Amino acid sequence: MAKELITTKQQLKTVEGYNEILRDIRSLLEKATYQAYKAVDNLRVQTYWQVGERVVRGELEHRDRADYGKRVITNLALDLGLTKVILHYMVKFYKTYPIVQTVSEQLTWSHIVELIYIDDNQARQFYEIQIVQNNWSVRELRRQIKSNLYQKTLKEGKLSIIRPIPLRPLLPEQVFKDTYNFDFLQLQNGHSEKQLEEGLLANVERLLLEFGSDFSLAGRQHKIMIGHEIHAIDLEFYHRGIPCIILVDLKIGKFKGEYVGQMNKYLNYYRENKVYPWEKSPVGLIVCEYKGKEEAHYALGNLENKIFVAEYKAKLPGEEEIERGVRNIRNADLKEREKERG
Questions:
Q1: Which residue in 76, 91, 268, 316 has the most C-beta neighbors within 10 A?
Q2: 266 assigned to some structural domain
């Protein structure tokens, strides 16, 4: 009798519908765990803000003593068993966000620690929105700050597109960058287009983060037949905000005008055979190592199809390379001045 009641793990898996039940319950438990952690972190954010507010209030009450705040933090660290660094974070948090309601619930304490040291209010707001829209981890936030994403976006004149509300259709001009940072690939000099493509596909999450929100990867090396000849599209994306299909052609080396004719042919085929009535016309993006602005300008001309050309950086310059570049610039300036004087 006891032997009949014994049910092995293998037998349980054969029960009809069991796998679906298991999957759903796992999903519920994972969601509950995430919500619990999120609730705890939100409580920590609220509490740390209140601690910072109380310390600052004490400083204001004793503003006649210049070292009052430092002494309070030193004593609190000893009595509460906290580090002075953490207490400084709390004070800085309150001073940066004097109204706690302005802090998004989707920002974790770890995100906030990174944000409070961005002095430019507009830059800080930019990164806040990017965190929420793109679900950035703290590590990704650090990477984007280090790569000067805000300054690049400001320079490209595209800051208006990061505002989260109201949602409205976007123009293709608003979603593409002039330069894409693929440094996470760590490619060596002389890499091939195949290595570039395989590296990107092996890092899809990083690739999508670099492209931005609303992008999704639809496929690679999609085959189409034109005039009894088979062509392959390197990468196919979809952008919900436009909405449209985006065809990406990866090229190593310098941009060539012939790339435009090839992309234009692919876009014409897609527009006539692949686009649903509610979608916008497909858009092409040619990503190469060196853009050549004048070459790209005349090659694109007044094409009916939207085609954009961008550069990619697969490896960030090291300190020695940066120093060498600075020296070259200085030497060039000196020579220029000598010519002017002579």
A1: 91
A2: yes
